[in-house]
Each structure stands twice: as C-alpha cells, then as structure tokens.
Specification:
Layout: H1 2-18, E1 23-32, E2 38-45, E3 48-56, E4 62-69, E5 73-78, E6 84-89, E7 95-101, E8 109-112, H2 115-146, H3 150-177, H4 183-188, H5 197-207, H6 215-235, E9 247-249, E10 255-257, E11 265-271, H7 276-291, E12 297-303, H8 308-317, E13 324-325, H9 334-338, E14 346-350, E15 356-359, H10 363-374
Parallel strand pairs: 1-7, 11-12, 12-13
Antiparallel strand pairs: 1-4, 2-3, 2-5, 5-6, 7-8, 9-10, 11-14, 14-15
Helix pairs in contact: 2-3, 5-6, 7-10
Length: about 375
Amino acid sequence: MRIKLSLIVFVAAALISCESQPTVNTISGKITNTEEESISLIGYNNGIPDTLRKAALDPRGSFSLEFEGGRPDFYTLALSEEKSLILILDSTNTDVEIEGDASKLREMYTISGSTESERLRDLLVNTSTYEKKLDSLMIALRSSAAAGEGEKRAKLGNSYNETRQAYRDYLIDFINNDPGKLANFTALQRLDMKSDLKHFITVRDALSLKLQGNYFLDNLTDQIAKMENQARLENLLDPGTMAPEIALPNPNGDIVKLSDLKGDYVLIDFWASWCKPCRMENPNVVRMYKKYANENFEIFGVSLDRNKEKWLEAIEKDKLEWPQVSDLKFWQSAAAELYNVKSIPFTVLIDPDGQVIATGLRGAALERKLDEIFNT
C-alpha cells in the first residue's frame, strides 16, 4: 500500500511539474533626461490599472524588471502619469529592450524584443505626425477665416481635408495589413465606428479566438453590437422595407394587429393624450381621414398613454374614428421600442402590402403624399 501511495504521489508531482508555468520575461532599458527614480509596469484587470512591477532607475536612467508573460495584452510602462509608454506583451517576449528620452518619451523611443510593441510604436509615431499636421492646419484655417482671407482659407481647407483622408487611409491600411494584431485596437480609436464599422468587425473577428475573454476585445465586441443594433434600427423603416407587425389591445381590450389592415394604405400614427403637438396635429389627421374615406386608406393609432381614461377622453374629444391601440406603457410601449420611436407625433405610411413608403409625415407633407398616391 505504501508503494502504491508513493507512486501516486510521484505521478501527481510529475504531472504538476509538466504543467505550463508562467514565463518570466525581462524588460530592460534606459530612459534619459528624467528626474524620476523608478519606473513601473502596469497591467489591466478588467480595464482597471494594476501595478505589476516597479524597478529603480540608476543615475544613468537604466532599469530592469521582470514580468510573467501570458496571452498578448496591453501594458503601460510608466515614469509618471504624464510620461508613459504603451506596450503589447506576451509569453514570447523574453527580453524586451527600450530606450527613450523622458522629455519627449512617446515621440522618441526605440523598442526591440516585442514585435507587437514595435508595430504599436510605428503606429503612434505616424499618427502623431498626422495629428500635428491637422492641428497646424486648423490653427491656420481659423487665422485665415478671422482675417477674411477667403482664397487662402479655401486652399487650407482643401489641405486639411486631404490630410484627414490620408490619415484615415493610413489607419485602414495599417489594420488590413495584419488584422490579427492588438495594435489595431489603437488604430480603431482614431476611426469613426459608424462610418468605418466594417474595419471594427474585421479586427474583432481576427482577434476573437486569440483573445477570447480579454477585456479590451469584450469591450470592442459590445460596442460593435450596439452600433449594429443602432444601424438596424436606423434602417428599419427605410422605404421599401416591411413594417414590423404591431399587435396591441384596443380600448375594449381586444388585440388588434396592423396586418389586419393589409390591402389598404395605412398611416401608423404614434401619439398620446398628453402630447400637445400630437393633439394640435390631430385635426389635420382627421381631415385627411375624411378626405380619403372612400379610398383604400386607413389610420392605425398607437398611443403612448399610460392612463386609459385620458386616452379614451382624447379619442372622443379629437374625434379619432380609426382603430386605436395601446399597451399603456408610456415610452416603454412595445410598439414604440419596435419602431425606435424617440419623439411624437411620429408617423409611418405603408402601402397595401405593408411596405414602408415614408416616415415622419405631418401637416402639408402628409397631404401632399396622400394626394400623390390617390390623385395620380
């Protein structure tokens, strides 16, 4: 029994010793023109800075510190809050060397031993060049505008726009050159997610397996999801798209569906008894309803009320004779959320097949569109 137990302990110890151990890496270098006496390596725990190591600087500014390498991630090497460098390190970076001048640390430093950090350095140096040029052009533009120098201002404006475009092209080329690198996070920060969404998606997809569970990737993924949802909502009611189904209770509590009106041109009218602009528009909507009563035209009122009595009083007072529905949930109305309604009155005109014709029609614009449909 003792022999068997000893064997088990030996095997267990052997297995433990065979498990991958954290790689101890070294960062060393020299930072000149600094009054600081130490330098720190900062990591990030769910985006929160965490000082991992601290090393003293000798009189010449030389230093050396060790860190445990793992998956690729962002780090900051800092003399102070104002004087710091961003690094990208992993377990392969066994011997990283850095040299720089503290008086202009982010502009003049060299790094070796970390391909990702070298790539990031090149990006930061180049973006700094573009940004300084843009700042200089903007100052000159403002000066020429104040002096009334129209021709000079026009030339400067062209130069500014050309530089902005060149800057954007550089960032996109940088990303496309190697989408699976962490430095692309920094490039994305200088692009507009709405207009450059596909490049954000390219980086997300290229890094999804390598960095699964990484804070920065998770944050990027969340931002992209929100932007994609926003784009979906913005395009939801484009002309030619199918209007989403609405099925809500009428004043009697019976469920009425928008699709019940298929075959008619339908004006979906989002309103509420408490909405003064809605109440002011109602007479015009009533007039349009009566004008085309003998045509295949219907109105589908969707109220954002929360008080049933006030809703019913407004229907009667304003003489709204068309179908009315509401879940009495105010701005949390299921239909309002589905149609991304941000303000009322809000209208959506759909054709007999349920396809969107136009949105936001009110007053004279509504009358012109209905005249165009029924009088041509």
